[in-house]
Amino acid sequence: MKKVSLIILFALMLSCQNEKKSSENTTLKVDKYVDSVYTLNDAFKIGDVRRYGVEPGKGIGQHPKLLKDKLEVLLDISELGIELYFPGGVYDRTLNVENRNKVKIVSDSALFTGAINIKNSTEIEIDGIVQSLSRFYTQNSNNININTIITKTDTITKASNLRSTGCSIHGGSKNVTIKKILIKDSGSGSDAYKYIKGGLVIHGHNNEPRDIKIDSAIVESSDRHGAYLSGEDIEIKYLHIKKFGIGSVDNMAPMEGGIDGEQKDFAGLWIKNCHDSFIDKAIINAEDSKGKYTINFDIGEEFRPTTIEKLIIKNESSNNELDKRIFSRTGVKYIELIEK
User: Fold this and answer.
1) 3-state DSSP assignment of residue 17
2) CA-CA distance, 239 to 22, in Å (whole number)?
3) Ramachandran area for residue 40 (φ above 0: left; ψ -120 to 50: alpha; else beta)
């Protein structure tokens, strides 16, 4: 009887092992099957966007197997845990990361002719350098980690007269970390620029951005404000506004929750209702700028201020010296001011 029991026990163990192997084999087959559905060119490694039919300098369009936009297919793949790699080159599209969770992208200076938008998403990471000929924009998203974002104007590559419009971290954006922002140009003029307030804008009425960390932000040129900051727990280690206020107020909408007209008084750095925030070093160049103010330190709360460790204003050789506006109830204070 004991011998029979041992035989039965051995048979059960063998059966379990076979079921486990069968399960593992099934998983492997499913993974292989999924990849085969997505893959259009297996000469490229898994994760390389060229494997799935997205190549720089070529039209993107629809995935022939899945009958779905190829960029949406790429984001589907990334949500499965696959890191996407975009090689350098021009991608004639807008990159919309919307309603996504856990997407990781590695960009080797990939250039999108359209905007890079992150909306209603969480845990989005872009490593390397990513570029846009339109703008970088976030809204209602959290846990965003970006290495380097560059926005610039190139109407020849874009085949459009529309200029780039900088970087906007908008309402509902939380826990956003960016190592470097470089804004080469931010335009103005037609109705297409109606809601563009400046080169770097961190703002959102009644749902202000929170926990924003930026190592370096450089605005080389902005037709309107250089930078506008509102929100809570904003940390910028280095902010440099090189040129601002050189464009048009035409068709410019008021700030959300703001007073109509104030948005037209261009400033190098405008801070309003920005709480518990810190800037290590801010440089405002006014030599080649126009507008009204070098700095506009608007209303805030003194007990939870925005503190600027070192503020440098370069107004030397400017034919039109700009004013500094510091509101009596401002929430901004600086430790050291250097004017040249």
Assistant:
1) helix
2) 58
3) alpha
In tens, the pLDDT along 232-290 reads: 999 999 999 999 999 999 999 998 878 899 999 999 999 999 999 999 999 999 999 99
Give per-residue burial for 289-316: e unless 16+ CB within 10 Å, then b: bbbebbbbbbebeeeebbebeebbbbbe
- In a domain, residue 55? The reply is no
Give kind and range of the element (H or E) at residue 322. none
pTM of the model: 0.89
Q: Residue with structure tokens 């450089």?
A: 218
The domain of 298 spans 83-339
Tokens of 51: 């494997």
In a domain, 256, yes or no: yes
Cα gap 122→176, rounded to integer Å: 10
Q: What is the DSSP string of 90-101?
A: EE-S-EEEES-E
Residue 53 lies in a domain: no
Q: CA distances (Å), 337 to each of 208, 266, 281, 331, in order?
A: 28, 21, 10, 16
Q: In DSSP terms, which residues pair with 314 in a beta bridge?
A: 285
Report how many domains make up the chain: 1
Cβ proximity of 84 and 106 under 8 Å:
yes
Answer yes or no: is 119 within a domain: yes
CA-to-CA distance for 133 and 173, rounded, in angstroms? Answer: 22
Element of type H or E holding 339: strand 332-339
H/E element, 126: strand 122-132
The answer to whether 145 and 126 have CB atoms below 8 angstroms apart is: yes
189: left (phi over 0), alpha (psi -120 to 50) or beta: left
